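Cont'd.
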Amino acid sequence: MRVLSRVDRSPIALTATGLAKLYGGTLALVGVDLSARSGELVLVRGANGSGKSTLLRLLAGLATPSAGQVRLTCEAGTRPRVAFVGHAGHLFADLTPEENLTLAARLAGADQTSALSILDRLGVAAAARTRSRWLSSGTLRRVALARGLATDPDILLVDEPFAGLDAEAARLVGGALEEVRNDGRLVIVASHEDARSRASADRSVELVAGRIADHTAAESVLAR
Amino acid sequence: MTLVTDSLILARKDLRIELRTRAALAGTLVLGAAALVMVGLAAGPGLGRLRDLAPSLTAIAALFASLAMVDRLDAIDRQNEAFEGLWLGLEDRRAIYLGKMLALTVLQSMLGLALWLLAIVLLDIPVVSGLLWLPALVVFGASAAAAATALVVPLVGGADRRTVLLPVVMLPMLVPTLLAMVNGSRALIDQDPAGAIGWTVVLIAETALFVGLGLLAYEAVATPE
Protein backbone atom coordinates (compact mmCIF):
# COMPACT_ATOMS: atom_id res chain seq x y z
CA MET A 1 0.00 0.00 0.00
CA ARG A 2 1.30 3.43 -0.94
CA VAL A 3 1.33 6.29 1.56
CA LEU A 4 0.09 8.78 -1.02
CA SER A 5 -1.54 8.18 -4.35
CA ARG A 6 -0.68 11.20 -6.48
CA VAL A 7 2.15 10.48 -8.91
CA ASP A 8 2.19 13.16 -11.62
CA ARG A 9 4.13 15.94 -10.00
CA SER A 10 5.88 19.00 -11.35
CA PRO A 11 9.50 19.20 -10.25
CA ILE A 12 10.11 21.56 -7.35
CA ALA A 13 13.34 23.30 -6.43
CA LEU A 14 14.07 24.82 -3.06
CA THR A 15 16.92 27.29 -2.70
CA ALA A 16 17.90 28.97 0.54
CA THR A 17 20.69 31.52 0.44
CA GLY A 18 22.44 33.26 3.31
CA LEU A 19 19.74 32.40 5.81
CA ALA A 20 20.14 33.94 9.23
CA LYS A 21 17.78 34.15 12.17
CA LEU A 22 18.14 36.28 15.25
CA TYR A 23 15.95 35.67 18.32
CA GLY A 24 16.36 38.65 20.61
CA GLY A 25 20.14 38.88 20.94
CA THR A 26 20.77 35.25 20.07
CA LEU A 27 21.80 34.10 16.64
CA ALA A 28 19.98 30.86 15.93
CA LEU A 29 21.16 30.51 12.34
CA VAL A 30 23.96 32.17 10.36
CA GLY A 31 24.68 32.17 6.63
CA VAL A 32 22.96 28.91 5.76
CA ASP A 33 22.81 27.95 2.08
CA LEU A 34 20.80 24.94 1.02
CA SER A 35 19.48 23.64 -2.29
CA ALA A 36 17.22 20.67 -2.76
CA ARG A 37 14.81 19.33 -5.34
CA SER A 38 11.95 16.89 -5.84
CA GLY A 39 12.77 13.25 -5.22
CA GLU A 40 15.37 14.00 -2.56
CA LEU A 41 15.41 13.17 1.12
CA VAL A 42 17.72 15.60 2.86
CA LEU A 43 18.72 15.08 6.47
CA VAL A 44 19.55 18.09 8.63
CA ARG A 45 21.64 16.81 11.53
CA GLY A 46 22.76 18.56 14.65
CA ALA A 47 22.67 18.61 18.42
CA ASN A 48 19.84 20.18 20.39
CA GLY A 49 19.84 23.94 19.88
CA SER A 50 21.94 23.78 16.72
CA GLY A 51 19.25 25.54 14.66
CA LYS A 52 17.56 22.57 12.93
CA SER A 53 14.01 23.53 13.89
CA THR A 54 14.66 27.18 13.06
CA LEU A 55 15.93 26.20 9.62
CA LEU A 56 12.84 24.08 8.95
CA ARG A 57 10.51 26.88 10.10
CA LEU A 58 12.25 29.33 7.79
CA LEU A 59 12.01 26.90 4.87
CA ALA A 60 8.30 26.38 5.59
CA GLY A 61 7.67 30.12 5.68
CA LEU A 62 6.53 29.99 9.31
CA ALA A 63 9.27 32.39 10.37
CA THR A 64 10.81 35.36 8.62
CA PRO A 65 14.58 35.24 8.12
CA SER A 66 16.60 38.07 9.65
CA ALA A 67 18.78 37.86 6.52
CA GLY A 68 18.81 35.80 3.35
CA GLN A 69 15.91 34.29 1.47
CA VAL A 70 14.10 31.08 0.64
CA ARG A 71 12.94 30.53 -2.91
CA LEU A 72 10.55 27.77 -3.96
CA THR A 73 10.12 27.21 -7.67
CA CYS A 74 7.75 24.86 -9.40
CA GLU A 75 8.14 24.01 -13.09
CA ALA A 76 4.37 24.15 -13.49
CA GLY A 77 4.42 27.73 -12.24
CA THR A 78 2.08 26.95 -9.35
CA ARG A 79 2.72 27.54 -5.64
CA PRO A 80 4.21 24.33 -4.20
CA ARG A 81 2.31 22.81 -1.30
CA VAL A 82 4.43 22.76 1.83
CA ALA A 83 3.70 20.65 4.90
CA PHE A 84 5.62 21.13 8.13
CA VAL A 85 5.43 18.52 10.87
CA GLY A 86 6.85 20.15 13.97
CA HIS A 87 7.07 19.22 17.64
CA ALA A 88 3.56 20.50 18.37
CA GLY A 89 1.94 18.43 15.62
CA HIS A 90 -0.61 21.05 14.51
CA LEU A 91 -3.46 18.81 15.63
CA PHE A 92 -6.72 20.10 17.05
CA ALA A 93 -6.80 18.40 20.43
CA ASP A 94 -10.56 17.94 20.50
CA LEU A 95 -10.85 16.49 17.03
CA THR A 96 -10.05 12.85 16.28
CA PRO A 97 -7.09 11.98 14.03
CA GLU A 98 -9.54 11.11 11.26
CA GLU A 99 -11.25 14.51 11.60
CA ASN A 100 -7.89 16.29 11.76
CA LEU A 101 -6.69 14.59 8.59
CA THR A 102 -9.95 15.11 6.71
CA LEU A 103 -9.98 18.79 7.67
CA ALA A 104 -6.36 19.29 6.58
CA ALA A 105 -6.95 17.47 3.29
CA ARG A 106 -10.14 19.39 2.57
CA LEU A 107 -8.55 22.77 3.18
CA ALA A 108 -5.56 21.84 1.03
CA GLY A 109 -7.82 20.63 -1.76
CA ALA A 110 -6.38 17.13 -1.44
CA ASP A 111 -8.14 13.76 -1.55
CA GLN A 112 -9.99 13.27 1.76
CA THR A 113 -10.71 9.59 1.26
CA SER A 114 -7.08 8.60 1.73
CA ALA A 115 -6.98 9.89 5.33
CA LEU A 116 -7.76 6.54 6.90
CA SER A 117 -5.32 4.66 4.69
CA ILE A 118 -2.50 7.04 5.70
CA LEU A 119 -3.26 6.39 9.37
CA ASP A 120 -3.29 2.65 8.63
CA ARG A 121 0.03 2.85 6.81
CA LEU A 122 1.59 4.53 9.84
CA GLY A 123 0.09 1.97 12.23
CA VAL A 124 -2.32 4.31 14.02
CA ALA A 125 -5.65 3.42 12.36
CA ALA A 126 -6.95 2.03 15.67
CA ALA A 127 -6.76 5.53 17.14
CA ALA A 128 -8.55 7.17 14.21
CA ARG A 129 -11.72 7.95 16.18
CA THR A 130 -10.20 8.83 19.54
CA ARG A 131 -9.88 12.48 20.49
CA SER A 132 -6.31 13.57 19.81
CA ARG A 133 -5.84 14.95 23.35
CA TRP A 134 -6.15 11.40 24.73
CA LEU A 135 -3.48 9.85 22.51
CA SER A 136 0.03 8.89 23.61
CA SER A 137 2.92 11.05 22.45
CA GLY A 138 4.23 8.33 20.11
CA THR A 139 0.83 7.97 18.46
CA LEU A 140 0.47 11.74 18.22
CA ARG A 141 3.77 12.03 16.37
CA ARG A 142 2.61 9.56 13.76
CA VAL A 143 -0.80 11.21 13.48
CA ALA A 144 0.96 14.56 13.02
CA LEU A 145 3.01 13.09 10.17
CA ALA A 146 -0.16 11.60 8.69
CA ARG A 147 -1.78 15.04 8.89
CA GLY A 148 1.11 16.52 6.94
CA LEU A 149 0.86 13.78 4.33
CA ALA A 150 -2.91 14.21 4.03
CA THR A 151 -2.34 17.66 2.53
CA ASP A 152 -0.57 15.96 -0.41
CA PRO A 153 2.52 18.15 -0.09
CA ASP A 154 5.16 18.81 -2.72
CA ILE A 155 7.61 19.58 0.06
CA LEU A 156 7.48 17.76 3.39
CA LEU A 157 9.49 19.20 6.29
CA VAL A 158 9.64 16.98 9.36
CA ASP A 159 11.23 17.91 12.67
CA GLU A 160 12.50 14.96 14.73
CA PRO A 161 10.21 12.33 13.18
CA PHE A 162 11.61 9.50 15.31
CA ALA A 163 11.48 11.19 18.70
CA GLY A 164 9.56 9.11 21.24
CA LEU A 165 8.85 6.25 18.84
CA ASP A 166 9.48 2.56 19.50
CA ALA A 167 11.43 0.50 16.95
CA GLU A 168 8.37 -0.67 14.99
CA ALA A 169 6.82 2.80 14.83
CA ALA A 170 10.16 4.28 13.76
CA ARG A 171 10.41 1.67 11.00
CA LEU A 172 6.96 2.59 9.71
CA VAL A 173 7.75 6.30 9.79
CA GLY A 174 11.12 5.81 8.08
CA GLY A 175 9.47 3.69 5.39
CA ALA A 176 6.75 6.27 4.85
CA LEU A 177 9.30 9.08 4.43
CA GLU A 178 11.22 7.04 1.87
CA GLU A 179 8.01 6.32 -0.04
CA VAL A 180 7.12 9.99 -0.10
CA ARG A 181 10.58 10.78 -1.50
CA ASN A 182 10.27 7.95 -4.06
CA ASP A 183 6.93 9.44 -5.10
CA GLY A 184 8.83 12.47 -6.41
CA ARG A 185 8.42 14.82 -3.48
CA LEU A 186 11.07 16.69 -1.60
CA VAL A 187 11.50 15.55 2.00
CA ILE A 188 13.66 17.42 4.49
CA VAL A 189 14.08 15.81 7.89
CA ALA A 190 15.71 17.39 10.94
CA SER A 191 16.98 14.88 13.44
CA HIS A 192 19.69 14.28 15.99
CA GLU A 193 19.22 10.51 15.75
CA ASP A 194 21.96 9.95 13.23
CA ALA A 195 21.96 6.28 12.32
CA ARG A 196 18.22 5.85 11.87
CA SER A 197 17.82 9.01 9.80
CA ARG A 198 20.97 8.56 7.72
CA ALA A 199 19.84 5.14 6.51
CA SER A 200 17.26 6.64 4.18
CA ALA A 201 18.70 10.09 3.45
CA ASP A 202 20.20 10.98 0.08
CA ARG A 203 22.48 13.53 1.68
CA SER A 204 22.90 15.24 4.97
CA VAL A 205 23.72 18.65 6.27
CA GLU A 206 25.19 19.10 9.72
CA LEU A 207 24.43 22.22 11.71
CA VAL A 208 26.68 23.31 14.55
CA ALA A 209 25.70 26.41 16.50
CA GLY A 210 23.56 27.66 13.63
CA ARG A 211 26.16 27.19 10.90
CA ILE A 212 26.58 24.45 8.32
CA ALA A 213 29.55 22.42 9.45
CA ASP A 214 29.31 19.51 7.05
CA HIS A 215 27.51 18.79 3.79
CA THR A 216 27.84 15.20 2.66
CA ALA A 217 26.20 12.54 0.58
CA ALA A 218 24.91 9.78 2.83
CA GLU A 219 25.85 6.13 2.65
CA SER A 220 22.67 5.19 0.85
CA VAL A 221 23.56 7.46 -2.06
CA LEU A 222 27.17 6.32 -2.16
CA ALA A 223 25.99 2.73 -2.26
CA ARG A 224 23.82 3.33 -5.34
CA MET B 1 -15.50 30.51 -3.73
CA THR B 2 -12.58 28.85 -1.94
CA LEU B 3 -12.57 31.65 0.62
CA VAL B 4 -16.23 31.18 1.49
CA THR B 5 -16.09 27.38 1.46
CA ASP B 6 -12.93 27.23 3.57
CA SER B 7 -14.38 29.80 6.02
CA LEU B 8 -17.48 27.66 6.49
CA ILE B 9 -15.34 24.55 7.00
CA LEU B 10 -13.29 26.34 9.65
CA ALA B 11 -16.36 27.78 11.40
CA ARG B 12 -17.88 24.31 11.46
CA LYS B 13 -14.66 22.98 13.00
CA ASP B 14 -14.82 25.53 15.84
CA LEU B 15 -18.51 24.88 16.46
CA ARG B 16 -17.99 21.12 16.43
CA ILE B 17 -15.22 21.44 19.01
CA GLU B 18 -17.38 23.76 21.12
CA LEU B 19 -20.31 21.35 20.91
CA ARG B 20 -17.97 18.61 22.11
CA THR B 21 -16.26 20.48 24.93
CA ARG B 22 -18.73 23.27 25.78
CA ALA B 23 -15.66 25.16 26.96
CA ALA B 24 -16.64 28.57 25.64
CA LEU B 25 -20.41 28.77 25.95
CA ALA B 26 -21.02 27.18 29.36
CA GLY B 27 -18.35 29.19 31.17
CA THR B 28 -19.18 32.50 29.54
CA LEU B 29 -22.91 32.07 30.10
CA VAL B 30 -22.30 31.68 33.83
CA LEU B 31 -19.95 34.69 33.73
CA GLY B 32 -22.50 36.79 31.83
CA ALA B 33 -25.35 35.81 34.13
CA ALA B 34 -23.24 36.60 37.18
CA ALA B 35 -22.29 39.99 35.71
CA LEU B 36 -25.95 40.73 35.00
CA VAL B 37 -27.01 39.88 38.55
CA MET B 38 -24.06 41.60 40.24
CA VAL B 39 -24.36 44.84 38.30
CA GLY B 40 -28.12 44.70 38.87
CA LEU B 41 -27.57 44.37 42.62
CA ALA B 42 -25.08 47.23 42.58
CA ALA B 43 -27.60 49.43 40.74
CA GLY B 44 -30.11 49.11 43.60
CA PRO B 45 -33.44 47.47 44.35
CA GLY B 46 -35.89 49.61 42.32
CA LEU B 47 -37.39 47.44 39.58
CA GLY B 48 -38.29 50.44 37.41
CA ARG B 49 -34.72 51.66 37.57
CA LEU B 50 -33.42 48.18 36.69
CA ARG B 51 -35.77 48.02 33.71
CA ASP B 52 -34.36 51.33 32.50
CA LEU B 53 -30.87 49.98 32.90
CA ALA B 54 -31.65 46.59 31.31
CA PRO B 55 -30.23 47.38 27.83
CA SER B 56 -26.96 48.65 29.31
CA LEU B 57 -26.72 45.86 31.89
CA THR B 58 -27.31 43.15 29.31
CA ALA B 59 -24.95 44.65 26.75
CA ILE B 60 -22.15 45.01 29.33
CA ALA B 61 -22.68 41.49 30.66
CA ALA B 62 -22.61 40.15 27.08
CA LEU B 63 -19.49 42.16 26.31
CA PHE B 64 -17.48 40.83 29.25
CA ALA B 65 -18.65 37.29 28.64
CA SER B 66 -17.72 37.69 24.96
CA LEU B 67 -14.16 38.62 25.89
CA ALA B 68 -13.81 35.36 27.78
CA MET B 69 -15.42 33.49 24.88
CA VAL B 70 -12.98 34.95 22.36
CA ASP B 71 -10.04 33.79 24.42
CA ARG B 72 -11.42 30.27 24.73
CA LEU B 73 -12.27 30.00 21.05
CA ASP B 74 -8.83 31.28 20.11
CA ALA B 75 -7.27 28.65 22.37
CA ILE B 76 -8.57 25.99 19.95
CA ASP B 77 -6.09 27.18 17.33
CA ARG B 78 -3.27 28.00 19.76
CA GLN B 79 -3.20 24.47 21.16
CA ASN B 80 -0.54 22.30 19.49
CA GLU B 81 0.16 25.28 17.23
CA ALA B 82 -2.74 24.13 15.08
CA PHE B 83 -2.92 27.63 13.64
CA GLU B 84 0.38 27.10 11.81
CA GLY B 85 -0.99 23.98 10.17
CA LEU B 86 -3.96 25.97 8.88
CA TRP B 87 -1.71 28.81 7.75
CA LEU B 88 0.42 26.50 5.61
CA GLY B 89 -2.44 24.48 4.19
CA LEU B 90 -4.80 27.21 3.04
CA GLU B 91 -4.83 28.74 -0.39
CA ASP B 92 -6.51 31.91 0.93
CA ARG B 93 -5.52 32.49 4.54
CA ARG B 94 -8.22 35.07 5.09
CA ALA B 95 -10.51 32.06 5.51
CA ILE B 96 -9.06 31.72 9.04
CA TYR B 97 -10.36 35.21 9.85
CA LEU B 98 -13.78 34.70 8.28
CA GLY B 99 -14.17 31.25 9.82
CA LYS B 100 -13.37 32.54 13.30
CA MET B 101 -15.71 35.49 12.80
CA LEU B 102 -18.58 33.20 11.75
CA ALA B 103 -18.07 30.82 14.68
CA LEU B 104 -17.87 33.75 17.10
CA THR B 105 -21.05 35.24 15.64
CA VAL B 106 -22.97 32.01 16.22
CA LEU B 107 -21.72 31.54 19.77
CA GLN B 108 -22.03 35.19 20.79
CA SER B 109 -25.57 35.29 19.37
CA MET B 110 -26.49 32.29 21.51
CA LEU B 111 -24.90 33.94 24.52
CA GLY B 112 -26.61 37.29 23.86
CA LEU B 113 -30.05 35.69 23.42
CA ALA B 114 -29.63 33.65 26.60
CA LEU B 115 -28.63 36.75 28.57
CA TRP B 116 -31.60 38.69 27.20
CA LEU B 117 -33.93 35.86 28.20
CA LEU B 118 -32.45 35.99 31.67
CA ALA B 119 -32.82 39.78 31.78
CA ILE B 120 -36.48 39.53 30.72
CA VAL B 121 -37.15 37.12 33.58
CA LEU B 122 -34.97 38.73 36.26
CA LEU B 123 -35.76 42.35 35.50
CA ASP B 124 -39.40 41.72 34.69
CA ILE B 125 -39.18 43.38 31.27
CA PRO B 126 -42.61 43.36 29.63
CA VAL B 127 -42.49 41.10 26.56
CA VAL B 128 -43.88 43.45 23.99
CA SER B 129 -44.24 42.75 20.29
CA GLY B 130 -41.16 44.86 19.56
CA LEU B 131 -38.99 42.29 21.28
CA LEU B 132 -39.54 40.00 18.31
CA TRP B 133 -36.89 42.14 16.59
CA LEU B 134 -34.49 41.39 19.43
CA PRO B 135 -32.91 38.28 17.86
CA ALA B 136 -31.95 40.28 14.75
CA LEU B 137 -30.41 43.01 16.90
CA VAL B 138 -28.49 40.44 18.96
CA VAL B 139 -27.23 38.54 15.89
CA PHE B 140 -25.97 41.67 14.11
CA GLY B 141 -24.50 43.00 17.37
CA ALA B 142 -22.67 39.69 17.70
CA SER B 143 -21.50 39.80 14.08
CA ALA B 144 -20.11 43.35 14.47
CA ALA B 145 -18.29 42.41 17.70
CA ALA B 146 -17.04 39.14 16.17
CA ALA B 147 -15.73 40.84 13.02
CA ALA B 148 -13.68 43.29 15.12
CA THR B 149 -12.53 40.68 17.60
CA ALA B 150 -11.38 38.14 15.03
CA LEU B 151 -9.06 40.80 13.64
CA VAL B 152 -7.73 42.00 17.01
CA VAL B 153 -6.98 38.57 18.47
CA PRO B 154 -4.04 37.80 16.15
CA LEU B 155 -2.55 41.20 16.98
CA VAL B 156 -2.16 40.25 20.63
CA GLY B 157 -1.85 36.53 19.94
CA GLY B 158 1.78 36.13 20.79
CA ALA B 159 1.94 38.71 23.56
CA ASP B 160 2.97 37.56 27.03
CA ARG B 161 0.18 39.52 28.67
CA ARG B 162 -2.55 38.74 26.18
CA THR B 163 -5.24 38.42 28.85
CA VAL B 164 -4.65 42.06 29.79
CA LEU B 165 -3.98 43.33 26.28
CA LEU B 166 -7.01 41.76 24.64
CA PRO B 167 -9.69 43.78 26.50
CA VAL B 168 -7.57 46.94 26.41
CA VAL B 169 -7.22 46.78 22.62
CA MET B 170 -10.73 45.52 22.00
CA LEU B 171 -12.88 47.73 24.18
CA PRO B 172 -12.35 50.97 22.23
CA MET B 173 -13.19 49.14 19.00
CA LEU B 174 -16.36 47.75 20.53
CA VAL B 175 -17.73 51.07 21.87
CA PRO B 176 -19.79 51.82 18.71
CA THR B 177 -21.22 48.28 18.79
CA LEU B 178 -22.04 48.62 22.47
CA LEU B 179 -23.82 51.97 21.89
CA ALA B 180 -25.82 50.60 18.96
CA MET B 181 -26.82 47.52 20.98
CA VAL B 182 -27.91 49.57 23.98
CA ASN B 183 -29.85 52.12 21.95
CA GLY B 184 -31.39 49.47 19.70
CA SER B 185 -32.65 47.34 22.59
CA ARG B 186 -33.93 50.45 24.44
CA ALA B 187 -35.90 51.37 21.33
CA LEU B 188 -37.41 47.87 21.36
CA ILE B 189 -38.47 48.11 25.00
CA ASP B 190 -39.93 51.56 24.29
CA GLN B 191 -41.90 50.04 21.38
CA ASP B 192 -40.07 52.09 18.78
CA PRO B 193 -39.46 49.54 15.99
CA ALA B 194 -38.22 52.16 13.54
CA GLY B 195 -35.51 53.15 16.04
CA ALA B 196 -34.54 49.50 16.56
CA ILE B 197 -34.33 48.92 12.82
CA GLY B 198 -32.15 52.02 12.46
CA TRP B 199 -29.70 50.76 15.09
CA THR B 200 -29.69 47.30 13.49
CA VAL B 201 -28.67 48.93 10.21
CA VAL B 202 -25.82 50.64 12.10
CA LEU B 203 -24.70 47.23 13.38
CA ILE B 204 -24.84 45.78 9.87
CA ALA B 205 -22.71 48.68 8.62
CA GLU B 206 -20.20 48.09 11.46
CA THR B 207 -20.05 44.40 10.54
CA ALA B 208 -19.38 45.26 6.89
CA LEU B 209 -16.69 47.77 7.88
CA PHE B 210 -14.86 45.36 10.20
CA VAL B 211 -15.15 42.45 7.74
CA GLY B 212 -13.71 44.68 5.01
CA LEU B 213 -10.85 45.71 7.30
CA GLY B 214 -10.32 42.11 8.32
CA LEU B 215 -10.11 40.83 4.76
CA LEU B 216 -7.65 43.57 3.89
CA ALA B 217 -5.39 43.33 6.92
CA TYR B 218 -5.67 39.79 8.32
CA GLU B 219 -2.77 38.18 6.47
CA ALA B 220 -0.46 41.02 7.49
CA VAL B 221 -1.40 40.97 11.18
CA ALA B 222 -1.61 37.20 11.59
CA THR B 223 1.63 36.07 9.93
CA PRO B 224 3.24 33.60 12.36
CA GLU B 225 6.72 34.32 13.66
